[in-house]
Amino acid sequence: MEAGQVKRLKGRPYSTDDERREVSRLLKIDSLQTYFFSAAGVVKAVDGISLDINQGETIAIVGESGCGKSVSALSILRLVADPPGRIIGGSIRFRDRDLLKLSEEEIREVRGKDIAMVFQEPMTSLNPVLTIGRQLTETMEQHLDMTHDQAVARAVELLGMVGISDPARRLRQYPHHFSGGMRQRVMIAMALCCEPKLIIADEPTTALDVTVQAQILELMKDLTQRLGVALIIITHNLGIVARYADRVNVMYAGRIIESGTAHEIYHHPHHPYTLALLRSVPRMDQPRRARLDPVEGQPPDLSRLGAGCSFHPRCGFAIARCASQSPPLERIDGGDHLAACFEADNVAKSMARSS
Amino acid sequence: MTPMEPTGAVRQSAEAAVQVSTVVPDVALEHRRQSERRVALAPELVTIRDLKMHFPVIEGALFSKEVARVKAVDGINLTIRKGETLGLVGESGCGKTTTGRCILRLEHPTGGEILFDGKNLVDLDQKSMQALRQKIQVIFQDPYSSLNPRMKIGEIISEPMKVHGTEPNKAARDARVAELLRLCGLDPKFADRYPHEMSGGQRQRVGIARALSVRPEFIICDEAISALDVSIQAQIINLLEDLREQFGLTYLFIAHDLSVVRHLCHRVAVMYLGKIVELADCDELYSNPLHPYTQALLAAVPVPDPDLERARAHRIVKGEVPSPMNPPKGCVFHPRCPLAVDCCAKIVPEFRELRPGHWVACSVI
User: Fold this and answer.
1) What is the homologous superfamily of the domain B30-60+67-135+216-361 according to CATH?
2) A242 touches chain B (CB under 8 A)
3) Could B234 and A294 be called an inter-chain contact, meaning their C-beta atoms sit closer than 8 Å?
């Protein structure tokens, strides 16, 4: 899909896959490190993650609380509070600019205009004392040089687009007049208002009920496809990822430990954590099992990570080497599927045996 | 993909499944089925008849008057058998938590009766209710706000024993705390720690240990695992199952996660806007949902398999849950219902048994 949207230059066929990808690449994160410096020590919340996103693509970052997925998202827009947090290494290239090298003025121009965000809690991310209309038009007046009347007209149009009925009247209302699902629709309208190239949605439906969750996710999928916006979904819900993401990145303890297409990740996982996550959830599509296979133990304390693979204390596949060396994220079979595990082949075999 | 491929894949997986079940019979699953059959014949522990919980909405400070009523629970009937786990599912605001709170008498119901072991909890005075609470315990959703941050774990777990006087001797209480911690998969040394020193999963284990401390018969799990991470959820689900087995506990499992409910429960009741719309055995409800709301709920749950997800038709129910202050006339679901006909707006559907053990409140089907 993403390749189809790129116009090929006449008479110059793509020489390699890599080159074609370069043309449509929107965002490239390279070895990003975001640390938090606290009295108790240094918390390596994001420790060297790399990922790409192409135009119009939907990717997912999956992981449990504290794995660094939200901090990664905040780092892209440089929204990590400093102190205590600081981006200490890596680069984030958005089209042709390194976002980490922009001045405070310049990054403000990017926020909301080129890259927009949808947060988890629509109640806390909307200002309770301003009307919905004011909050929508403010961004447009700031970024698009619109007059107030133009901005209001566009706000009405946007609210209609996200499925809010009677938008002109609703513009004058405050966030507390809206239900949770409706607030999240407003957040999406706000994210879309400057026609961004990329939307980062951080747990966009976690606070919502299942039927409303399905509505919001379908809306986001429709709008991003229709407008050609790329989307990063950050979530802990493996079902949502399966339905919406083209590529999936699994995070554990501040690192991406596996990355690949949704099909590869769900059907041929090569990292024991991914395998364990998939096995630990009760599934409606399979016969009922007598017992669940939980991941034993607790996630590690990010301020006290030792040498070696951070998953090895909970891992059933661990070998002696895992305690001392940290496995790099490597290509599997030379393809686009990456995994950071010394025993990746054994994990894949175990999955093949069980299914 | 040719249309032939999926058929081949399905056949293959069906063959594989047959192979697995003949080579290694799933002993645990068979054991579970047996216990399910046993539970179906067990006597009733809790019987709820026409339970109503209406909250008044009051306006005006000096000449205050009731202007409306929030019908959180509006005439529900349920039975829970001894040793059974009954799932109560629905979206936020449907009244599932209020039902649990009524059974605990944290709310005083406005109507109906709740029979526990033959005693009607609605009529009991404070003192006899207090004594009965030893048999009915609760595990709350949020492991952060349900433990007192100023008390040590040991004090938190021994508090119910002090209140009910089950272990008057301090040494015996401490021994019991250590035993309970071990039972719930925690180190007995945790008794000297404070809640903030523990992770969410560990705190929820403390909440379970506290509920178990007075040897209850019936435990209400109110979204007990919703706040936990996926890998920790599975640990707690297994713990709840083990404890049920070991102590013959009865659970009312209130949750919104339908896949967890399917795994854990014997029977499931689906609530919508203060009413039960469907009630059936777990396998029956999931394989053959009859009420359009249950169907919508099940269709809305995304399944962790990208190939299946993308091939599946998504019928998404419109709109949101209306306010329980002013619920729709007739069938409460009719404004969102894809099957609604004219009479749905007028007639309140009867809750009837369409098949043995499968109850539905819908006049269309």
Assistant:
1) P-loop containing nucleotide triphosphate hydrolases (3.40.50.300)
2) yes
3) yes
Helix axes A272-280, B230-247, angle to 10 degrees: 50
Grouping H, G, I as helix, E, B as strand and the rest as coil, residue A84 is: coil
B303 neighbourhood in chain A, CB within 8 Å: 239, 242, 283-285
Residues 63 through 92 of chain A touching chain B, CB cutoff 8 Å:
64-65
Cβ pairs A/B, distance under 8 A: 145
Q: What type of residue is A343? A: E
Give dist(CA B284, CA B297) in Å, integer.
Answer: 15
Q: Indicate the SS3 state at residue B29.
A: helix
Cα B317 to Cα A258: distance, rounded to the nearest angstrom: 35
Model pLDDT for residues A70-79, shown as the tens digit of each residue: 899 999 999 9
In chain A, what is the straight-line distance between the N-terminal and C-terminal CA atoms, in Å? Answer: 30
pLDDT tens across B189-219, in order?
Answer: 999 999 998 888 899 999 999 999 999 999 9
How many C-beta atoms surround the C-beta of residue B211 within 10 A?
A: 24
Q: What is the signed CA dihedral for B279, B280, B281, B286, rounded to 10 degrees?
A: -100
Give the tokens for residue A3: 């390749």
| Integer Cα distance of A325 and B236 in angstroms | 32
Helix axes B153-164, B200-212, angle to 10 degrees: 20
Inter-chain CB proximity B32 and A290 less than 8 Å:
yes
* Angle, helices A210-227/A180-192, rounded to nearest 10 degrees: 10
Helices (H), A193-280: 210-227, 238-244, 262-267, 272-280
pLDDT tens digit sequence for B57-91: 888 777 888 888 889 999 999 999 999 999 999 98
Quick count: other Cβ atoms within 10 Å of Cβ A98? Answer: 13
Q: Quote the minimal CA–CA distance from A163 to chain B in Å.
A: 10
**Domain ranges in chain B with CATH number 3.40.50.300:** 30-60+67-135+216-361
How far is the CA of A179 from the CAs of A4, A205, B83, in angstroms? 39, 13, 39
Lookup result for tokens 């046993």: B38
Does A281 sit within 8 Å of B316, measured CB to CB?
Answer: no
Judged by CB atoms closer than 8 Å, whether chains meet at B229 and A241 is answered as no
Query: Side chain identity at A355, as an amino acid letter?
Result: S
Nearest to A285 among B31, B202, B303 (CB): B303
Give how far the C-alpha of residue B113 lies from the chain's centroid of Cα atoms, to the nearest Å: 20
Q: Where are the domains of chain A?
A: 53-79+106-252, 257-283+304-354
| Domain A53-79+106-252 sits in CATH 3.40.50.300 | yes
